[in-house]
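Handoff note, outgoing to incoming analyst
You'll be picking up this chain. Sequence as last confirmed:
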Amino acid sequence: MKKIVLFIAQEGFRDEEYFHTKEVLEKNNFVVITASENKGNAIGKLGASAISDISIYDLKSSDFDALFLIGGPGSYNYFEDQKIHKLLKETYESGKFIGAICAAPAILAHAGLLKGKKATSYDGVSSILIEKGAIYTGNNVEVDGQIITADGPSSAKSFGLKIAELIKKSDEQ
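Most recent structure output, in case you need it:
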């Protein structure tokens, strides 16, 4: 079974984006690994609790098949996190899917992964994407090659479905 990492902030991840995306992926028979800054309890913006299986800093791109970043106010703390940027770049360069939802696409932008790519995000960070060279579309969900982005909580299920669809499709090729 394919292993998909969902990265959440230790505090202030967007609850619906994490839980709805995770639910869709699990229903599509993917193993979901939750990563955060530290292993253990993480708290969502709306107060939900999630358990991080592993620290993002202990992951190697060979440990999983795809990596997606969950947004929310806590994701702002990771916009310029060089260790996460390095992991994202290694994952992308190995041909795996990466992506982000809500404010988290700004992490991809800061890592230099959205330059010349179509992407979407929460409106509040769209200027960062544009400044870093992304082709900002404002769509609910956007795909450009191996990169999948989404605009926020209301698109979490669609984000999960698009991830599942594209990974399954890539397995068939």
